[in-house]
Amino acid sequence: MSFFFDHKSPLLVEFLERRTTINAQGYQATLQNLKRAIKSKRPSMLSNGVSLLHDNAHPHTANAVKTTLQQFRWETLEHPPYSPDLSPCDFHVFGPLKQAIRGHRFTTDDEVCDWVQASIRQQPTSFFKDGIDRLVSQWDKCTNSFGDYF
User: Which CATH number fits the domain that encloses residue 66?
Assistant: First the structure.
């Protein structure tokens, strides 16, 4: 699952097909979809500037992806290697999702995707704002620990 959000709401949720992995070409397509989602949901964000935080996985740092981000004129925040403490999805979103899904039974992948989408849509605006606000303190902790886990 790829999930992008800002301080107000989800911007894009995408699911990979079973047994596939993301590569640079797939991530470029995701970024194109994200740009379309931003244009639809937050058009002023494209003119005011987009700041993107993603980790240093190879698909995110491939030259083709860097070129796409430069063409979009999006700022990419530096992400220290091996720092899951800086991913709002990791420290704020996925934990509550995992707890909420515990005990549910699904018969198809589509049912799982629908459940996740509905769960994300049900979150109040404050949930997303809290995740972005928490990123600031996580960033400070990471900086003060020189990139070590905390």
Answer: 3.30.420.10
